[in-house]
């Protein structure tokens, strides 16, 4: 039996995900709608839902008379270890005790009085925290997968929620992706002596997993919503800077067990850029002999900037499909003006074995599925 936690536990992201999948007691349409209305802001905030520590939050925890002192103290230690807002750390502890802790109140008291057992509990809560972060992203992935599926029983409720998320989602998630690949790894000096090498490695695996999931969400978003040419340019520059996953700030921490996550970041970076070029629309415009209607036909300056960027590509395998797609787009829109550029870009894609790369990409994503995320 789980030990009862002091104070109310907010709805966990894992619980929300279970509800959205229709695996909980809350299965009626109005119940799904109510849950999404209540929590859509969390889904929009994504990983930014979790805030950094602050003196004001610590003071609120200390002044909270509804939480027992030992739980407050443990909450503050969790905050230090995870670099997480103090109030959210106490909430996280309460949710863990309510959902995952399998002891009694008396056993919990003993654990809190024993330093070694307290440390073990903090590490379990860290794992729970990493899962909670992942479940926020899983919820959004689930909504984007099914909000236009006429066969899904909650399609209307999902679509209403996606309408609320649509305008700001990609910008927020793109910023979170940038923050993740630029952030410095935690150390025992900054996060306390529980932050051992093993825990730093655990943190970095989570960091890579979250990056790949954020990109998967952005890719899925652009499968339904058009990408502006200016956004394609911004994303191309960002992925180039980041080496399509290979130039992590903490790349010294990468070992072979993390390679699937790094590869997945590269695959989704490439897929996002190809999706942004809107090749499907290009094909339709060409068949109708209305090439001028394609959005890139109307933005010559962006096309020139993209040409210059593409000519610097070629040192990473993930560049291959991006180069091939851009060569196809430029050749279709401006065959006479861009022949030399297209030959160079297309030639580089062939040198990178683009078709073998596409086979590997499809196999990897088919095998990886949600296991990698």
TrEMBL record:
Q: Which GO terms describe its cellular component?
A: nuclear pore inner ring
Q: Where is the Nucleoporin Nup188 N-terminal domain?
A: 31-363
One GO MF term on file is: structural constituent of nuclear pore
Any single biological process term in GO: RNA export from nucleus
Which Pfam family, an example, fits this chain?
A: Nup188_N
Check the record and name the PANTHER family matching this protein: NUCLEOPORIN NUP188 (PTHR31431:SF1), NUCLEOPORIN NUP188 HOMOLOG (PTHR31431)
Protein name stated in the entry: Nucleoporin Nup188 N-terminal domain-containing protein
Organism from which the protein derives: Marmota monax
């Amino acid at each position: 039996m789980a030990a009862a936690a002091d104070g109310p536990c907010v709805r966990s992201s894992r619980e929300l995900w279970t509800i959205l999948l229709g695996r909980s007691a809350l299965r009626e349409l109005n119940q799904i709608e109510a849950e999404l209305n209540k929590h859509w802001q969390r889904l929009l905030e994504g990983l930014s839902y979790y805030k950094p520590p602050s003196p004001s939050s610590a003071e609120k925890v200390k002044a909270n008379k509804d939480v027992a002192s030992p739980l407050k103290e443990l909450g503050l230690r969790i905050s230090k270890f995870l670099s997480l807002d103090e109030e959210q750390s106490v909430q996280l502890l309460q949710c863990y005790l309510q959902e995952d802790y399998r002891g009694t109140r008396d056993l919990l008291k003993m654990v809190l009085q024993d330093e070694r057992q307290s440390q073990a509990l903090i590490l379990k809560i860290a794992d729970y925290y990493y899962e909670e972060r992942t479940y926020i992203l899983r919820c959004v992935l689930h909504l984007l997968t099914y909000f236009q599926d006429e066969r899904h029983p909650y399609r209307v409720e999902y679509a209403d929620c996606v309408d609320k998320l649509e305008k700001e989602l990609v910008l927020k998630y793109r910023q979170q992706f940038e923050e993740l690949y630029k952030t410095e790894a935690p150390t025992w000096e900054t996060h306390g002596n529980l932050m051992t090498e093993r825990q730093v490695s655990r943190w970095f695996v989570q960091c890579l997993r979250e990056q790949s999931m954020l990109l998967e969400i952005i890719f899925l978003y652009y499968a339904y919503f058009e990408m502006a040419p200016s956004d394609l340019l911004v994303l191309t520059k960002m992925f180039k800077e980041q080496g399509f996953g290979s130039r992590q700030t903490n790349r010294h921490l990468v070992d072979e067990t993390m390679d699937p996550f790094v590869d997945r970041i590269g695959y989704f970076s490439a897929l996002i850029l190809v999706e942004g070029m809107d090749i499907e629309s290009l094909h339709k415009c060409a068949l109708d002999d209305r090439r001028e209607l394609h959005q890139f036909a109307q933005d010559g300056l962006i096309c020139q900037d993209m040409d210059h960027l593409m000519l610097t590509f070629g040192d990473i395998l993930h560049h291959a499909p991006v180069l091939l797609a851009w060569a196809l787009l430029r050749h279709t829109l401006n065959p006479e003006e861009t022949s030399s550029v297209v030959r160079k870009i297309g030639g580089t894609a062939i040198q990178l074995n683009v078709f073998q790369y596409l086979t590997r990409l499809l196999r990897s994503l088919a095998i990886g599925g949600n296991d990698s995320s």
